[in-house]
């Protein structure tokens, strides 16, 4: 009987009056009556100040953990019967997925964090059992029955898959990928439902844009600040969920691409991220939020920006770069080798690549930030190395030239960054450049050991203060609750290797002296180092000559003249000096524009010029002799006499 799948198997059980009866393995009779405890998120730092709040939550978390342990210990047929026929249990598990804090919202208190992580680990094991149809050689479902069961009974749906992708990679990323891939493989209807995910997220983008406009036009008060914080949390949740889905299950790109989702994602970044930054700057000016609150909100905004850009990169990888590299997997554009043989039509892939970036050219803010993290020039080099196609230089330069334009995003983000400075260890973008956190692996191979700190403190001098601040910012992008001073101490211990620091903190594998430090510790300013001024020797025009007082004890003062020397003489000598004119006489004589005039004195001065009588006989101002004869001819020809106008004193006929 054990060779049969669970849906066809029957199990003997004792019923009333001692009668044995065979009951289907999946039946309501196997359901246990239990009062399941409801999960609530850990209390905030302010709520923990209330007496008994922390103990109450820890007690509640203990009961939730006991319920999950009870569920995991059930045999396969009772486990599935409990899931299928206990509607309250389904609600409890769904609420737990929805309300569990994400990685960027974990509590600071160590006791709360440890209890919360224990719940997450048990919840991960529960959904691991739910995401496979074959639990063992004896306990399994047929794939067809399992596919219909989880889909029709809403045991797993798209919202739950989004939560699974967001929460469980911290437990084990590789197993989480297999869980999700198995669900999509067994039940193809989930792939069809991804089309609706794109439409739903697009409506969410539009809702955010409308709410931001309402906040901008509304009265500036505490309610507007709370509305802005809610919008920021919503934006971060969308960006994180989408990034987690595409990271855990990259084939989801093929379901979202036909709707043009990547273009809408870039537009959402360009409109919402810049608007959020400007509103925070505005509220900071009006003293509605403090500088520390602004730092906290800006870190969340920066994380949302990183997740959005990483999601878009997944579209480029899956649609364009991965097909070029064959089976090489996700690409980092700087490490490709030309020897990989593509298994696709390079021309069509290149056309998709050019089309994607041509469609987002108007989203300048997003394009600048994306190019900072993933240079587009490197992607073009990949296509050129592959061969088999020719890139249109006009389209290529049209895309690359868009990266040289100034954008509204630069002024918006940089204005807020300049005002925040180094408060709380915050280090934002410089010139639109984004300090994105490096990718980390959950395999644990990069975990730092205590011995790895050897010589770490000696490397401090090899990094500038700006470089250290950038490393601190990279760690805080992933772990924003850590103080800059604490992060700097960890960096020094792990030889300033950011990935090792992040892995050690996430896995709780820190050195003992680091675990005892205050995680909110601020960074201590270093005193400026005194630098010896270089020995600068003055140089002059009189070095080593007879007037050099630095090399001679005595100088002949008679050879020293004060003021300007008179090299010309008196003014009379200046006017009588005709040497310059004499030097130019020959030149002007050859040109024929100068005549020598002879000066005559006394009786020699006679008038010898001939009088010019050319115009003496001209009747200037008089009537011509033939005037009247001509006038008579005109009158005879039907003319009329000239009449002086009245305005000029005339009015009578001239005689």
What does this structure look like?
With 655 residues, this protein is an all-alpha fold. 53% of the residues lie in helices and 2% in strands. The protein has 25 helices and two strands. The protein has a two-stranded antiparallel sheet. Helix 9 (189-217) packs antiparallel against helix 10 and helix 12 packs across helix 18. The chain is elongated and about 165 Å long. Mean pLDDT is 78; it is low at 327-340, 406-411, 424-460 and 530-536.
Topology at a glance:
Blueprint: E1 10-14, E2 20-24, H1 45-48, H2 53-72, H3 76-85, H4 87-99, H5 110-130, H6 143-152, H7 158-167, H8 169-186, H9 189-217, H10 222-248, H11 252-256, H12 261-285, H13 291-325, H14 346-359, H15 364-373, H16 376-386, H17 393-401, H18 408-420, H19 465-478, H20 484-493, H21 498-506, H22 512-515, H23 571-576, H24 579-591, H25 627-636
Antiparallel strand pairs: 1-2
Helix pairs in contact: 2-5, 7-8, 7-10, 9-10, 9-12, 10-12, 10-13, 12-13, 12-15, 12-18, 13-14, 19-20, 19-21
């Amino acid at each position: 009987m054990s060779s049969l799948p669970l849906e066809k198997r029957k199990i003997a059980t004792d019923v009333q009056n001692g009668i044995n009866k065979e009951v289907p393995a999946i039946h309501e009779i196997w359901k246990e009556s239990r009062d399941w405890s409801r999960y609530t998120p850990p209390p905030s730092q302010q709520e923990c100040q209330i007496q008994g709040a922390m103990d109450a939550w820890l007690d509640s978390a203990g009961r939730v953990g006991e319920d999950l342990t009870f569920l995991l210990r059930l045999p396969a047929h009772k486990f599935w019967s409990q899931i299928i026929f206990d509607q309250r249990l389904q609600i409890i598990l769904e609420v737990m997925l929805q309300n569990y804090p994400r990685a960027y919202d974990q509590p600071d208190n160590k006791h709360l964090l440890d209890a919360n992580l224990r719940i997450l680990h048990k919840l991960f094991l529960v959904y691991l059992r739910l995401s496979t149809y074959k639990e063992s050689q004896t306990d399994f479902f047929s794939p067809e029955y399992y596919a219909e069961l989880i889909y029709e009974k809403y045991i797993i749906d798209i919202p739950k898959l989004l939560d699974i992708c967001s929460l469980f990679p911290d437990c084990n990323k590789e197993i989480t990928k297999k869980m999700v891939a198995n669900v999509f493989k067994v039940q193809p209807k989930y792939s069809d439902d991804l089309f609706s995910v794109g439409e739903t997220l697009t409506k969410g983008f539009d809702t955010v844009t409308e709410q931001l406009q309402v906040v901008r036009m509304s009265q500036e008060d505490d309610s507007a600040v709370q509305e802005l914080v809610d919008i920021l949390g919503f934006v971060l949740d969308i960006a994180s969920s989408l990034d987690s889905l595409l990271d855990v299950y990259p084939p989801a790109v093929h379901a979202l691409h036909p709707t043009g989702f990547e273009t809408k994602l870039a537009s959402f970044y360009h409109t919402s991220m810049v608007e959020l930054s400007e509103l925070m700057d505005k509220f900071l000016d009006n003293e509605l939020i403090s500088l520390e609150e602004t730092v906290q909100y800006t870190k969340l905004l920066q994380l949302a920006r990183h997740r959005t850009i990483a999601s878009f990169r997944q579209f480029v990888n899956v649609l364009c770069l991965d097909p070029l590299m064959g089976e090489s997997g996700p690409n980092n554009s700087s490490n490709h080798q030309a020897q990989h043989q593509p298994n696709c039509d390079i021309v069509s892939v290149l056309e998709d690549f050019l089309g994607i970036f041509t469609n987002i050219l108007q989203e300048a803010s997003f394009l600048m930030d994306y190019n900072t993290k993933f240079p587009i020039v490197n992607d073009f080099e990949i296509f050129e190395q592959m061969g088999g196609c020719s890139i249109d230089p006009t389209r290529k330069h049209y895309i690359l030239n868009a990266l040289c334009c100034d954008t509204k995003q630069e002024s918006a983000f940089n204005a807020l960054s300049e005002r925040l400075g180094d408060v709380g260890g915050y280090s934002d973008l410089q010139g639109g450049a984004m300090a994105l956190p490096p990718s980390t692996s959950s395999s644990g191979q990069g975990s730092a050991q205590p011995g790895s700190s050897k010589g770490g403190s000696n490397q401090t001098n090899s990094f500038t203060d700006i470089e250290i601040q950038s490393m601190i910012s990279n760690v805080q992008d992933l772990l924003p609750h850590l103080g800059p001073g604490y992060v700097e101490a960890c960096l020094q211990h792990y030889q300033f290797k950011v990935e090792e620091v992040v892995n050690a903190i996430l896995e709780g594998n820190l050195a003992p002296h680091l675990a005892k430090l205050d995680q909110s510790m601020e960074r201590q300013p270093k005193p400026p180092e005194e630098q010896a001024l270089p020995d600068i020797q003055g140089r002059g025009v009189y070095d080593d000559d007879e007037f050099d007082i630095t090399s001679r004890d005595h100088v002949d003062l008679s050879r020293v003249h004060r003021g300007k020397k008179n090299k010309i003489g008196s003014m009379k000598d200046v006017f009588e000096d005709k040497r310059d004119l004499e030097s130019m006489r020959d030149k002007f004589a050859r040109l024929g524009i100068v005549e020598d005039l002879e000066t005559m004195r006394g009786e020699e001065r006679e008038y010898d010029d001939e009088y010019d009588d050319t115009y003496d006989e001209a009747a200037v101002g008089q009537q011509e002799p033939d005037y009247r004869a001509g006038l008579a001819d005109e009158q005879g020809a039907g003319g009329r006499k000239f009449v002086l106008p009245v305005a000029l004193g005339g009015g009578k006929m001239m005689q």
